[in-house]
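Can anyone check this?
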Amino acid sequence: MRCGAADVRIVYRRRQDDMTALVSEIESAVMEGIELMTLQAPKAIEKDADGNCTALVVQPQMIGPYDKAGRPSPLDANKSAFAVPCDVVLIAVGQDIVSKPFEDFGMPANRGVFKAGLDTAVAEMPGVFVGGDCQTAPSTAIRAIAAGKVAARNIDAYLGYDHKLPCEAEAPAPGRITAPRPAGPISPNALPISASTTLSTSKTPSRWRRPCRRRAAACAVITLAAECWKEAVIDEEHYYGR
């Protein structure tokens, strides 16, 4: 979408709940206008006489038995395959953690993910620290960086050191907030009938009728808005927030 495509679709043979991507990543893709075609298994790519891609042939799927990873296996549904017109097909190769060589060495793991504590230390193997996707399964780079910092600090302590790293950043001294009090506007149409009636009575000075309406419509705090609606007449000091 960001490269200027008219429309983008993600074709996936399982359900959206079965996607191994982060929920935030899936939601971000949908918010950017990408369509999710779930329970559709790619079967072939059609091309024209010049070899250019013209369509992706997909086969509708249905939910089957659960696999070892706890996800339902997709099966071909009793529906005909169909072509999805497209100009470009990008193949997602997925991602994996190669843990078997480490497991053969004695590293404890569960379904390819190494077992370690919050301090990134492996209890069964003193002096071994792990972090990142190999410990948490696929996650964000921010979590991997955080795990690296934790591991570095604990490795330093394990080796008998206590190095101090300079922060090289100074926090500014706290000061008085001089910004005006935030007030979220509400729709004037949301005003109760009683407010409109009160604000338009003959008792309200004409020079304050419009400010009263604006004040009532701009009050984010319900109690203050209700006070404005009830009193109708407010003095100049109250209106200007002095």
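Reply from J.R.: I decoded it. Strands lie at 9-11, 35-37, 40-47, 53-66, 72-76, 82-85, 109-110, 113-114.
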